């Protein structure tokens, strides 16, 4: 699909953010760092819409990916999901190393809020139900 969209993105100078999938073993899925890179190399207008839950379910490290490739990421879907294609779990119910290095307490909402590199909370987080 990315090959078919690339010419239109280039012609209209439109950013297209590729949403990942948790099917890391599927060669046709955009699910791994390598498959994201392959898609991004098709157009300068292709970026990443990173689904942290999908990355976790595929046994990948979303925090490392964000640190290494943050310039190409336009959106991040935040959710808790278990590894090995596991189920989604209620937000904040999982204890993972990844959240301890990129979150701070937000007592007003009782939720973890992602932070920037300077450890300041990101200004706008839209909670999706």
* Structural classification: alpha/beta
Report the sheet with the most strands, covering strand number, pairing sense and barrel closure: 3 strands, parallel
Biggest sheet strand order reads: 1-2-3
Kindly give the count of domains. Answer: 1
Q: Low-confidence segments, ≥5 residues, pLDDT <50? A: 96-129
SS field, number of helical segments: 5
Shape: elongated
Q: Whole-Å distance between the termini?
A: 28 Å
Run of helices and strands: HEHEHHEEEHEE
- Report the sheet-strand fraction: 15-25%
Our Rg estimate from Cα atoms comes to 16 Å
Count of individual beta strands: 7
Portion of residues within helices = 25-40%
Average pLDDT over all residues: 77
Protein traits:
129 residues; alpha/beta; three-stranded parallel beta sheet; two-stranded antiparallel ribbon; disordered C terminus
Q: Could you explain how this protein is built, in words?
A:
By secondary structure, this protein is of the alpha/beta class. The chain has one domain. Helices cover 29% and strands 21% of the residues. The strands form three sheets. The chain has a three-stranded parallel sheet with strand order 1-2-3.
Give the structure's gist in a few sentences:
The chain is an alpha/beta fold and 129 residues long.
